[in-house]
Amino acid sequence: MFDIKWIRQNPIKFDDGLAKRKVAPQSQEIIKLDDKRRAAQSAAQTIQFERNALSKKIGNAKANKENPSELIAEVSKSKESQLMAEFKLSELETAINDRLSGIPNLPASDVPEGLDSDDNEEIRRVGEVPSFDFTPKYHFELGEALGLMDFETAGKIAGSRFVLLRGLLARLERSLGNFMLDLHIQNHGYEEISPPTLVNDKTMYGTGQLPKFGSDLFKTEQGYWLIPTAEVPLTNIVAGQIIDEGSLPRRYTALTSCFRSEAGAAGKDTRGMIRQHQFSKVEMVSITRTQDSEDELQRMIGCAEEVLKCLELPYRTVLLSTGDLGFGAQKTYDIEVWLPGENTYREISSCSNCGDFQARRMKARWRDGSKSDINYVHTLNGSGLAVGRTLIAIMENYQKADGSIMIPKVLWPLMDGVKMIG
């Protein structure tokens, strides 16, 4: 969401930012709508002022024992006029909010321009890609051969894009989630949260999922939405608040199930666990002062990367181009893990700085203690990590020729000393 005053003062800068996202200019149409809103607001205020003056005249007439019937009739007409003016004002305010709600965040100045992921900028590569003396298998080939990854039964129970994990693979997934959560709590200073996974319209709107992306989500008959990521409830913890500077930054983390309809993913990653309707993810969310968000973004990336370093998985970090940037983000880094089965890197974490874009929708602000100023907070979110994709990465990078899977050393205590699945 954008500040309409800022758009009026910076129309060229606003349109230039949208142009980097290949979005048509919007400023002039928005300003025209706002001009109409201002005129309607002025008309409503004028009518209210005139009504107050008439009410005062009625009081004076009664005090002087004069007949106020004509004045009362004028007040009655004035009420009708004010109701119409307020209705028109409300319609225009709704139209502006609807228009602004559908416009993506402006990219940061250092985000590379581009059309899609091909234009992303690689920042670094960490770890050596494993070399096998056999043809590495996909995770689903390994899992099905072990009898521990069951897509057929999941399909019978729920449908396509679901999986049923058994035995040691189910335990490995659970251990991974707990390992990530403990790392972020104990080493990185995040507060653990166990949030609702069903939320209301206002909460989804606050982080930008609604109204634009309703088709990508699951909704219950009772009107609740299943969260696509814990970013949604974690960020909304501060909705409607004015936070004292001394309590910032706030850092939250949660391990939750996530639900996505994958409406735009027809035909993509139909085999295996890469793209599921339901999956587990450890999420990190930070709430910061305006001036601290860029440093916090770099810190968050480091927290996510640390998980992969502990698991000794090769990865690369890329800065997304404007063509690959998410709706609410002004800057995003993706961390991509190496998958030998696919012979390529695949996204396992996405860390974004949303600036004050979400905060304006949520009305989340902070108080500058030195100046007593009140500003919108900056919000950041990142995967730390997607648990299912991390499981996939371990299976494919730690596989052996006989189809067995070694378990990373850091997970042995969580697996009660089990070092291999085979």
Describe this structure in words.
- By secondary structure, the chain is an alpha+beta fold.
- The protein has two domains: 4-101, Helix Hairpins (Orthogonal Bundle), CATH 1.10.287; 117-421, Bira Bifunctional Protein, Domain 2 (BirA Bifunctional Protein, domain 2), CATH 3.30.930.
- Helices cover 40% and strands 21% of the residues.
- The protein contains twelve helices and 18 strands.
- It has helices at residues 4-9, 11-20, 27-63, 69-101, 139-146, 151-157, 167-186, 201-206, 231-235, 293-311, 357-362, 387-397; strands at residues 121-126, 149-150, 164-165, 191-192, 198-199, 218-219, 225-226, 242-244, 250-259, 278-288, 315-319, 331-339, 344-353, 365-368, 373-376, 378-386, 405-406, 420-421.
- The strands form five sheets. An eight-stranded mixed β-sheet has the order 1-11-12-13-16-10-9-4. Strands 5-7-6 form a three-stranded antiparallel β-sheet. Strands 8-14-15 form a three-stranded mixed β-sheet, with no helix packed on it.
- A hairpin with a 5-residue loop joins strand 6 (218-219) and strand 7.
- Helix 5 (139-146) crosses helix 12 (387-397) and helix 7 crosses helix 12 (387-397).
- The protein is elongated, with a radius of gyration of 27 Å.
- The mean pLDDT is 94.
